[in-house]
Amino acid sequence: MEEQAFFDKMISHLRSTCKYYTGYPKDLGPSKVVHFKSEREFVQLLHEGRPIVVAFTIRGNYTKHLDRVLEEAASEFYPHVKFVRVECPKYPGFCITRQRKEYPFVEIFHSPEQANNQGRVVDPGITRYSVKVLPFNYDLSSYGFREFFKRHNIKSSDPK
After folding, report:
1. Which InterPro entries match (predicted)?
2. Whole-angstrom distance, CA of residue 103 vs CA of residue 85
3. Residues 10, 21: contact at Cβ < 8 Å?
4. Cα torsion 34, 39, 45, 46: sign
5. Most confident of the ranges 16-25, 88-97, 116-125
6. Which residue ranges make up each domain of the chain?
7. Cβ of 25: how many Cβ atoms within 10 Å?
C-alpha cells in the first residue's frame, strides 16, 4: 500500500517537472486533427497558406500510437500548422498518388505559392499552386515535429 502511494507521488512529480514527458493521458481539449474527407477540402486547407502535416494511415496498433502523437502535436502547433489524418482504405485514390507502399507514413505540405503559367493559356477560373512536399523521417513526437520545422525553416509558431 505504501509502495503504491510512493509510486503515484513519483510519477506525479515526474509529470510536473520533466520538460519532455510524453506520458498519457494528457488533457488536450477538443481534437485539432482534421480528418480527411475530400481532396477539395484538402486543397482549401492548402489555400490557407499554413503548413499541413498529413498522416497516411491504415488500421493497426501502431496507428493508435500515431493518433495520440498527432493529437498532442496538433494541440501544440495549433493554429500555425494543420494536422490531417487520411484513412487510406477509405480514400485509396488520394493515398495511391503518393506512391508509397509502407503505412503509416507522414508528409509535410507547405509553401503554397501561386505558380506562374509560363506563357500557357489556361482557364482564368483555375488557380494553380506550387506546394513543397517533404517526407517526415524524424522522431514521431511533438519534439520531432518541432525539430523538423526548425531544420526546414517552416514557420510553426508566432515569432517572439
Report:
1. Thioredoxin-like_sf
2. 12
3. no
4. positive
5. 88-97
6. 30-111+129-155
7. 6
Of residues 65 and 15, more confidently modeled: 65
Do 67 and 25 form a contact (C-beta atoms < 8 A)?
A: no
Strand order through the sheet with 129-135:
33-35, 82-87, 52-57, 105-114, 129-135
150 touches 110 (CB < 8 A): no
Predicted confidence band of residue 54 (pLDDT cuts 50, 70, 90)? very high
Q: Domain 30-111+129-155: which topology?
A: Glutaredoxin (3.40.30)
Q: How confident is the model at residue 100 (pLDDT cuts 50, 70, 90)?
A: confident
The three cell numbers locating residue 40: 477539395
Does the pTM of the predicted model rise above 0.90?
no
Q: What is the DSSP letter of 37?
A: -
Bond prior to 135 in cis (omega within 30° of 0):
no
Distance, in Å, from the CA atom of 142 to the CA atom of 158, rounded to the nearest integer, reads 17
Q: Is the dihedral of CA 113, 106, 158, 38 positive or negative?
A: positive
Grid cell listed for 143: 519534439
